[in-house]
Amino acid sequence: MNIDEIAKILNADFFGDKDLYISKIVEPENDELNTLSLVVDKNNFFKISSFTNKAYITDKEIKKLFPSNANILVVDRPKYSFALLTKFYKKKHSQLSNTIPQGILSGLNCSLGSNFIFGSECEISNNVIIEDNVTFGDKVFIENNVTIGSGTVIGDNVRIGEGTVIGSEGFGNILSGDSWIHIYHLGIVEIGNNVAIGANCCIDRATIDKTIICSGVIIDNLVHIAHNVFIGEGTAIAAKVGIAGSCRIGKRNLIGGMVGIIDHVSTTDDVVITATSTVTSNLNESGTYTGIMPITKHAKWKRIAYWITKLDKILKLLNLKKI
Asked: Is 227 considered catalytic here?
């Protein structure tokens, strides 16, 4: 859309070139031309690499940081306006076809979008849906009832289990009064080489960039990986794990069953998180962590757990002393 048209949709004050055409929404550090970015604070602003043929949504205070030649949409609530705008840039996939290209071994009732690129020795099973602009490497095996969302990139020697959805819409919303405004997710999922993903998993597409599963990652059944997450090489994730948005997981992490990791948490390399732990802060040192209570180093947690089992005896002893 033309930037002037976008300003009308958002009821924004616009400063700059009204003839600027906006082809897509990107992160502030992306220097592609004819793009629009959300800038909500100084950290976002200082990531900007160029102001040429780009536009930015921001508020009155952050606008003061921009040079006079920048193209700026000024609104009271930038995140809310950004959420409204994503709906207009959400691409609809084209009519799915049941015609599978030669060179792919396929099962029954499979559907395929446009611009599908695939390597050699690929196989898709029954009832698989693959949307537009998906890329497969060599030796990709897709089991029954899998959906691959538009733009997904899959490397070599990848197996995806039954019922899994790759590139599902992320859970991003802005509260407006008593209602939630959904942020339409415009990014993709990128999966490296030698990755195994179990059954009934959901890996959400990024908001506007990439959710990344690096090479060598193995994922058990019933795992949810939210938008903008990065999973480092060689990490293993057990069943029923939930990783919230924008987390960054290091290399060779071992994440036990039913672990929950809150949004924007990062872990370093060679971390072990024991089963059912809740991770609420960054893990900056390698080692084993347990977080049934607020997460701490495993050795310290064992000492705490020992004294928890003695609390009833301690209370009885204290009562005797009071008497």
From this structure: yes
